[in-house]
Amino acid sequence: MNVLRGRTLAALLAAATSVAAPLSAQEIPVVERTLSNGMKVLMVARHDQPTISCGWLARVGSANERPGITGLAHLFEHMMFKGTKTIGTRDAARDLELNRLQDEVQAGVREEMSVLREKQRRGEIADMMAPAARSPRLVELLAKFDALVTEQRALIVKDEMDKVYQENGSTGLNASTSQDRTFYIVGLPSNKLELWAWLESDRLANPVFREFYSERNVILEERRQTLESRPGGLVNEAFNAMTWMAHPYHWQVIGWPSDIAQVTREQANEFFDTYYAPNNLTAILVGDLDPEKTTALMETYFGRIPANPKGVPEVVTMEPSQPAEQRMVAEVEMTPSVEAAYKAVPAVHRDAAAFQVLGVILGGAPSGGRPGMGPVRPPSGRLHRSLVLDRKVATRASAFFRGGRYGGLFTLTATPAPGRKPDEVEPFLYDELGKVVKDGVTDDELSRAKNALRVAHYLRLESNAGIRESLAQAESSGTYRDFLDAPKKVEAVTREDVQSVAKRYLEKESRSVLLTTRKGAGSRGKPPATPPAAEPAPEVKR
Questions:
Q1: Which of 276, 249, 234 is nearest to 70 (CA)?
Q2: Which pTM value belongs to this model?
Q3: How many CB atoms lie within 10 A of CB 476?
């Protein structure tokens, strides 16, 4: 187990159980530098092990897309591992020429697909993707494209970047894309930091998006496996789209299939030039390093990449006020459930800390060091005690707050007990929420919730990777200082604050509800039933 600033984790957890624990115990020594091209560098020196958790963050995710190019941020997560002008190919010149020829053929393919799209719109063909609908020109173009792809594959050195890292003792080479960010990570021995700087700056300065069109098909298959083939996957996608009407969180990170299939390399290059410029990037390095030497190293390698003088377009679309409750009823092959999602606030909003506390009070202590993201086992929140233990109408009940850069949701969920239907369990969720609105929370509940959030914060500081991830998450929604200041904000939350956010935001008109029943079992889709007379009815309609 690592030691954080001379304290064992056990000591930290013990300190966290006291409301009066000094906030200085939660501080980490972040050194911030800005390179000549605007790239931000965050460094935390921790010399207990000769390793460094490395990462760089592009402040771009699905929220920065638009209809027509949805899924492009996630596609880039894949493309950035395809190599550079020198890594990943046996013949750089021919490789680039094959990319150009593929682009030319794909331009013709798009023309033919546009014709088919219009025919389908007019009802002249049933399925534009059916092989029988293809024109002779399209058949010829596709055959030519396949030949170019085959030739290029012979030149590609598969996963060469991965192999270089593995040969030098790396761990955890990976990347992830969310609504607000794309994050590239790896762990290395501290004496390999310059290798990381060279490799990562090279794929920013000299990327080659080889296998671009083939990778679109890989993404489509990933979508089929992770979303379309899973019970309830498409239902959850539709529910998300219903919940966010105009907001850029409207679509899934992986994107719409029609957009994935049609996005062009030209669009990808424009996207890269805009969002992968150094003035939109943050490097995060935690471990056995010297901040001043590291800054000089970063300037040498990353400082050579020119900034984007235009900057990054601002996300301006905001969710309009929701005039009425939205409901969706679905019959699928999955465990029945009820989910009520309320429009909340972004992660950096002044009310976010109160939402975190409310999430713990209703849903239970945070698990895995992720405040407000779900109950621990065994659950301990109001919803579990009321719906599962006391009333026995559910086998699971929780609440959590998810705040992003541009918006957030506060969600109540429950799994009905055997013999119960989702619409029968739903009012019990609002019953408990109504008690908070009417009567507030107790001092003991507030204290326990704060302690739980404090422990979760300490757990995030246990490892280099945990600190790296926490700083990255904060940077994606605001700045790293928001993570450092989180304990103070939580500590400042009052009982009145918790009751206030429940009253202000968690109204019936602001929620979207998903009732899921097992296929063939029947579903009601009618307004929520009133709880049995023997049970206390909701104090207010939520």
A1: 249
A2: 0.87
A3: 23
